[in-house]
Amino acid sequence: MFLICLLLWLLFNGRVTVEILAFGIVISAVIYAVSCRFLGFSFRKDLFYIKKLPAACMLLGVLLSEIVKSNLAVIRAVYSNTPQDSRYEEFDTSLEKTITRVALADCITLTPGTITGRLDGNHYIVHCLNQEMAEGLGLEQRRFTRQLQKLEEREETP
Fold it and tell me: What does the alpha-carbon distance between residue 62 and residue 60 come to, in Å, rounded to a whole number?
């Protein structure tokens, strides 16, 4: 958090001089100390989140690739003259934490052509634009689940 505050300070100043850097270090240290004291931040939590960063970046990469593939599939569906047979698909997941199950629902909804309609525990109901989206949902869901499980595997927050 200290480094983020310092980088924001330097970014908002637009230039780097010794005085600006020194003042930014002092201001960032004060903000970090207040955050640790009153908001529950700590150096151990910062390290915990830094360790999760590679898995989160991989999830973002999977999400972006699925968004591109889904956009192309939706474009094909829109420009084809065949009627679309939308459908609901149901599946269960092995994700343990509520936050990762909600993240999976959000990832599915962010990909064009699919919308998570309902999430009850580990059970999902997803609306798919057509048969191709419904078939792709299984692979898409497995790719997201694999990355989210990597985020769950890490040790618990301090």
Answer: 5
Stated pTM of the model: 0.73
Q: Which domain holds residue 123?
A: 55-153
CB contact set of 149 (below 8 Å; sequence gap of 6+) = 94, 95, 100
Q: Give residue-wise pLDDT tens across range 57-91.
A: 998 999 999 999 989 988 988 898 888 888 898 98
Q: Is the same domain home to 66 and 139?
A: yes
Single out the residue of 29, 28, 30 nearest to residue 7, CA to CA.
Answer: 28
Q: Which of the 8 DSSP states describes residue 81?
A: -
Tokens of 57: 């970046």
Distance CA 100, CA 49 (A): 15
Q: How far is 48 from 145, CA to CA, in rounded Å?
A: 21
Task: Give the chain's domain count.
Answer: 2
Q: Is residue 128 one of the residues assigned to a domain?
A: yes
